[in-house]
Amino acid sequence: MSFLRAADARDESGHLISELHGIKLAQILEYLVAAYGWPELDVRLRMNCFADNPSIKSSLTFLRRTPWARTKVEELYIKARSAEVQGRPRP
């Protein structure tokens, strides 16, 4: 019996989710806001752009200028999206 690892999860197009193939940062952020909401993103990632008057535009500006923050957001997206594709609850 085999199982899929989070790194092996594929989206509807067949691309590995961990590769973020063709996915824009705005799409990632919109997905996370829809899945978790701004308050939960702040709790999970501890970034002021999610806590203090959050918006997609201001968060994108911050994430594009701050590599460590973008990496954390992308990692949460990969975990959440992989869980969704594999039918598991979001982390």
From TrEMBL:
Pfam families named in the record: VF530
InterPro entries: DNA-binding_VF530-like, SAP_dom_sf
Record-given protein name: Transporter
